[in-house]
Amino acid sequence: RANLLKTVEDIISPDEQEQKLPEVPRKEVLIVDDDTAIRQFIKQELSKKNLGIVDAGDASEAKKILEHYRPDLIILDIVMPGTNGLELFKELRTDHRYKWTPIFFLTSKSSPMEIVEGIKLGADDYIIKPFNTEDLVARIEAKISRMEELHGLAVRDPLTGTFSRGYFMERLTEEVERFSRHKKSFCVAICDLDFFKKVNDEHGHQVGDFVLQQFASFLYSKFRRTDTIGRYGGEEFVALLPDTDALTAYKILERLRSAWEKMPIIEPYQNKNIQITFSSGIGEFDKDGKTEQEIIKAADAALYLAKETGRNKVVL
Ligand code: GH3
Ligand code: MG
Ligand code: MG
Ligand code: MG
Prior knowledge:
Layout: H1 8-11, E1 27-32, H2 36-48, E2 51-56, H3 59-66, E3 73-76, H4 85-93, E4 103-107, H5 112-121, E5 125-128, H6 133-151, H7 165-182, E6 186-193, H8 196-203, H9 205-222, E7 228-233, E8 236-241, H10 246-262, E9 265-266, E10 273-274, E11 278-285, H11 292-308, E12 314-315
Parallel strand pairs: 1-2, 1-3, 3-4, 4-5, 11-12
Antiparallel strand pairs: 6-8, 6-11, 7-8, 9-10
Helix pairs in contact: 8-9
The structure holds 3'-deoxy-guanosine-5'-triphosphate (GH3) and magnesium ion (3 copies).
Domain Response regulatory: 28-144
Organism: Pelotomaculum isophthalicicum JI
Domain GGDEF: 184-316
């Protein structure tokens, strides 16, 4: 699977020279279906609607992806080899991490009895193939925003679409717990824009906001879908890189640094070109007994060093 591969070439998408950044996907959806063609079609259709999509071909692949990736909604096919969609649904509902994640069935099983069975299990919606794209997207978006309202959860930062600091810290705690079982190193990288205050001072707050959105889009376009990107402070973003050692993280961040430096940012108010770089500090979690606070502290100290020694730099 492309987004679980670990070489730097596979982690970084190849569109470094791309001039126009995509919008930040505001919502993330996992689609589980054994039919590759249907998966590709849904992926293509939903991506056009600015939804971030990750797909899995069966239940075990889905569970592997869900170790790190936290979608806003899950879509399940019912008839699949191995664990079928109904069984996977029951498993996810008894796992506290996905208990409240909306789950839709998307299936060609369309008899009233089958629909009733799915709904009785507690599915959040039941959609029959072939589906209408507009209809599916409307259902997804309505369900996600309703869930967020109900829980009063500030999961995402409204300006940039990245995860809130609180949510990011929850994900970090999960990853620390995972480490005690699997002993796979992971990294946290804090990315802080250099002299960002000058952008506000010279071009105004609106342009500053625009730059923050562009930076978030850039990060989304470069990191893996299974990496968690949060807004840590005003112009400070933080990324959680599962199954990544310090050297790999360094190479990834270094490539990001150099790609961002070359990226033209044209603000839409006076069409001025904004020049801005970022610095990054990396913390590695590689030993039992470490804490969330320690890894953040290590990344912070590295960031401080990057700033002190000239900015536009990545420090390990
Ligand atoms: P350094 O290279 O040391 O990081 O310098 P800096 O200017 O980037 O850092 P500093 O902490 O001095 O300034 C950060 C600025 O970010 C100050 C604050 O007004 C601005 N800021 C924070 N949140 C937002 C926001 O949501 N929108 C805008 N436009 N500006 C913001
Ligand atoms: Mg199927
Ligand atoms: Mg800064
Ligand atoms: Mg800062």
